[in-house]
Write a structure and sequence with these properties.
Elements (H helix, E strand, L loop, with lengths): L10 H16 L4 H17 L7 H14 L3 E5 L1 H18 L3 E3 L6 H11 L6 E2 L4 E2 L9 E2 L9 E5 L4 H8 L3 E5 L6 H5 L2 E3 L3 H15 L4 H10 L2 H16 L7
Parallel strand pairs: 1-2, 1-6, 2-3, 6-7, 7-8
Antiparallel strand pairs: 4-5
Helix pairs in contact: 1-2, 1-4, 3-8, 3-9, 4-5, 4-8
The structure holds ligand PTJ.
The site of ligand PTJ has 25 residues, from helix 2 and helix 4.
């Protein structure tokens, strides 16, 4: 691992990069995943590398949807596992939500390596692909009958855009984590959390804890009032205002 001095102004971001590089060396992340991360970093820069105000509504709605779902599931790929397997594992364990390994660049070897990362958590992991999604053409169509295929809500992250639309076509609800508010994934999902995956699960945990103290009617209303397009617009406005604010280069 590269020795990054703690006082480096970009320490945090460089350490996150290191996780990806380590994941790549171990065969968890594909080379394309490094490129995908660069795009994410660019958008993280634009939002100031912090969770921004409009996105809290998406967090709240995501928690509401997960709490109301009968069979929610978290789909993980190479980047997600490399960046946040501990956070995802803890979340899945706490809220008893299964995980399915769902890869664009599919290989049995990568599935095994990603599975290993989650094995220390008491969570159900789906990694047997016995059915195909008729609405997805990429290798992500390979899913588990008892996992993604039978779920009602799927959480996807750092992915390339074919899953949300494909999943919604067969009646599933989709929560996406994607730093790019303009991506297909962001626009085609029911709820998009425009935030860096490395920040997402602790915040989502807080919302899950908070909302689970409320009655179903309150949770349902939060979901009904949520408008993903509006939130994406607010994110774009936030970025534009931030970039054009007088002190931006100070
Ligand atoms: O592991 P596999 O085989 O499933 O392959 C995964 C990759 C990432 C290679 C594949 O899904 C891909 O090519 O994705 P894209 O099309 O590059 O899209 C990735 C999206 O995730 C982009 O919109 C990025 O802005 C976003 N992104 C990247 N890093 C992060 C992120 N969003 C949230 N948090 C991040 N850390």
């Amino acid at each position: 691992m590269t020795d990054i001095p703690k006082d480096h102004p970009r320490y945090k971001s460089l350490m996150i990069r290191e996780r990806l590089v380590e994941g790549f060396k171990k065969g968890v992340v594909v080379p394309q995943g490094l490129i995908a991360h660069g795009r994410g970093e660019a958008f993280d820069y634009l939002i100031g590398e912090e969770t921004i105000e409009p996105v809290y509504k998406a967090y709240e709605a995501s928690a509401a949807l997960l709490l109301l779902s009968q069979n929610p599931i978290i789909a993980v790929n190479g980047n997600a596992a490399a960046l946040a397997y501990e956070d995802i594992g803890r979340f899945a364990e706490k809220f008893n939500i299964p995980i399915e390994i769902n890869l664009f660049h599919f290989s049995v070897e990568r599935v095994r390596k990603i599975r290993e990362l989650f094995e220390s958590f008491n969570v159900k992991i789906f990694d047997v692909y016995d059915v195909e999604l008729p609405t997805v053409s990429s290798k992500r169509r390979l899913v588990s009958r008892e996992g993604i295929y039978s779920s009602d809500t799927v959480m996807v992250m750092i992915e390339d855009g074919d899953m949300p639309i494909g999943l919604r076509k067969i009646g599933k609800k989709v929560i996406a984590i994607d730093l790019n508010p303009l991506s297909r994934t962001a626009r085609d999902s029911d709820i998009t959390i425009v935030d860096n995956l490395v920040r997402v699960f602790p915040i989502l945990t807080r919302y899950m804890d908070k909302l689970s103290r409320h009655g179903q009617d309150v949770i349902r209303r939060i979901l009904e009032d949520y408008d993903n397009n509006e939130v994406l617009k607010e994110v774009l406005i936030y970025i534009v205002e931030r970039l054009t604010s007088p002190g931006i280069l100070d």
